[in-house]
């Protein structure tokens, strides 16, 4: 709970700073790769988070998307995304979020995601449940795919897997009430935890995208695995999350073409 307290304080400070900054002009955007932008705002917010965490819990390694993207091995560490949904932020198209998680031996034990524009705080601690602004979260009880709303993330950096993704998208779309792509994986997972999405999948995510959100889903009664059903740690790669019924269904739908690759 001390780690959760520190994460909440650091995330709250970062969110307030984000609300105060001016959106950089397009000439100030830096392309890390095609369609993947970063700005001085991302870096400054990450520094502010690191300073807050170090002040409250000295000595823990801090892994951040912009400044130190190498995962710590073993022990206790922080995993930070100072601005998840940078492209959304640059266009003032919600959502964008701050995500902070504490890991012990590579597993998340406390996490916070702040929906910056809407000013909602999502938090979770191992064995203590998941919460939004003091209200306990629970994954949805919808079990019929035809009634389900599914979240996803489109491939946008490496388009090599786009054809395989579109085939999976077609199968999911044909069987469900709808699919949404919001642009912030941290928020997508919080929406699974709160029952707004019944399930979610994305082909390629980074540890800072998912570390806090995956704890949120699990503490709200949901499941988070890779597409083969393997219990997922904080790592790079694909992710499938959902309530138990829709998670199992989504695994089956996504893996229909497993032998064909992609």
Structural account:
By secondary structure, this protein is an alpha+beta fold. The protein folds into two domains: 2-136, Fructose-1,6-Bisphosphatase, subunit A, domain 1 (Fructose-1,6-Bisphosphatase, Chain A, domain 1, 2-Layer Sandwich), CATH 3.30.540; 145-260, D-Maltodextrin-Binding Protein, domain 2. The protein is built from seven helices and 14 strands. Helix 4 links the parallel strand 10 and strand 11 (178-180). The protein is globular and about 50 Å long. The mean pLDDT is 92.
CATH-derived architecture of the largest domain:
2-Layer Sandwich
Helix content: 25-40%
What is the CA-based Rg, rounded? Answer: 17 Å
Strand content: 25-35%
Going by CATH, the homologous superfamily of the largest domain would be Fructose-1,6-Bisphosphatase, subunit A, domain 1
The number of E-state strands comes to 14
What's the rounded overall pLDDT mean? 92
